[in-house]
C-alpha cells in the first residue's frame, strides 16, 4: 500500500530525528517485550536503516530494525546489508512484519511529501493502528543532508507533538524551517493558521535574542525558545534545546485550530 518515492537518501541524513527518538522513546524500547522498529520507505540505499539500528541499540541492545520498501529492486539491493537485528522487507503502509509482530516504533521520513494533504490523516491512522501498545509513529521531512528537519510524533490516539530541529549555524531565522514542514502542515504556513503564527513569534523571539549571538547560535536559540514558551505550549525537556530542537504540542499547531496569538 503506497507509492514509490524518489528514493533520495544520504548517509547520516536522519541523525537529528534518530537522536530525538533515542532520547525520548528509549525508555519505551527498554520496556518493550519485543522492541522491533520499522524504517518505512528507507529509499534507494539502506543507510538510514543501518544507522537507526546502531543508534537505537545504544538505548536498548535488543532492538531490531526492519526496513520496509515498496520498490522490490530497493529491497533486493539492501539484502547484502542484513545482519543480526536488521532485515529488509517488501511492503508499504500495511507494515508486513512476520508472525503478527507489532512495531514499538515506525519511522517514516520523507515518505508523505509526494502525497496530497488530504491523504495524510488516513495514512497516519493506518500506521498508528499497526503500532504495539505504547508505540510511536514519527513522520516528517528533512533537507538532503539533514541540517533542517521537522517531524510529528503520533501515538495510537493520534498526533501528539511537532518537533523542529536544525543545525543552528545554518539558520538565518527559525522560519527557515518552514520549507521542511511535514505534509500535514506545509500548506498551512499562511496567515491565520497556527503554525504560521508560531513561526512568526519564533522569528520575533529570535530577533529579540540577537544579543546572545555573541555567545553562539545555541545560546541564542535557547533564549528564543524560552521566550516562545511564554505563549506556546512546549512539550520538550529543556535539555533537548541545546541540540537545536524545540517540541510543541500538536493541538497548538493543528490545521484549523485557533491561533494563540491571532
UniProtKB/TrEMBL annotation:
InterPro entries: SAM-dependent_MTases_sf (IPR029063)
Protein name listed in UniProt: Methylase
The species this protein was found in: Streptomyces hebeiensis
Amino acid at each position: 500500500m503506497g507509492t514509490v518515492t524518489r528514493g533520495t537518501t544520504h548517509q547520516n541524513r536522519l541523525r537529528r530525528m534518530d537522536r530525538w527518538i533515542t532520547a525520548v522513546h528509549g525508555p519505551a524500547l527498554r520496556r518493550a517485550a519485543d522492541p522491533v522498529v520499522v524504517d518505512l520507505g528507507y529509499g534507494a540505499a539502506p543507510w538510514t536503516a543501518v544507522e537507526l539500528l546502531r543508534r537505537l541499540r545504544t538505548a536498548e541492545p535488543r532492538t531490531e530494525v526492519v526496513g520496509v520498501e515498496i520498490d522490490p529492486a530497493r529491497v533486493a539491493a539492501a539484502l547484502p546489508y542484513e545482519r543480526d537485528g536488521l532485515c529488509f522487507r517488501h511492503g508499504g503502509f500495511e507494515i508486513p512484519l512476520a508472525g503478527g509482530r507489532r512495531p514499538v516504533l515506525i519511522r517514516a521520513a520523507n515518505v508523505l511529501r509526494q502525497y496530497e494533504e488530504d491523504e495524510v490523516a488516513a495514512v497516519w491512522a493506518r500506521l498508528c493502528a499497526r503500532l504495539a501498545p505504547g508505540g510511536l509513529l514519527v513522520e516528517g521531512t528533512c533537507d538532503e543532508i539533514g541540517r533542517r528537519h521537522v517531524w510529528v510524533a503520533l501515538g495510537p490516539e493520534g498526533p501528539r507533538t511537532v518537533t523542529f530541529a536544525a543545525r543552528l549555524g545554518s539558520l538565518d531565522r527559525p522560519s527557515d524551517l518552514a520549507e521542511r514542514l511535514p505534509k500535514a502542515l506545509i500548506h498551512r504556513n499562511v496567515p491565520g493558521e497556527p503554525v504560521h503564527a508560531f513561526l512568526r513569534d519564533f522569528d520575533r523571539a529570535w530577533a529579540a535574542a540577537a544579543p546572545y549571538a555573541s555567545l553562539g547560535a545555541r545560546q541564542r536559540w535557547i533564549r528564543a525558545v524560552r521566550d516562545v514558551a511564554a505563549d506556546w505550549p512546549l512539550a520538550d525537556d529543556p535539555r533537548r534545546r541545546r541540540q537545536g530542537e524545540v517540541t510543541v504540542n500538536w493541538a497548538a499547531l493543528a490545521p484549523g485550530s485557533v491561533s494563540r496569538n491571532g
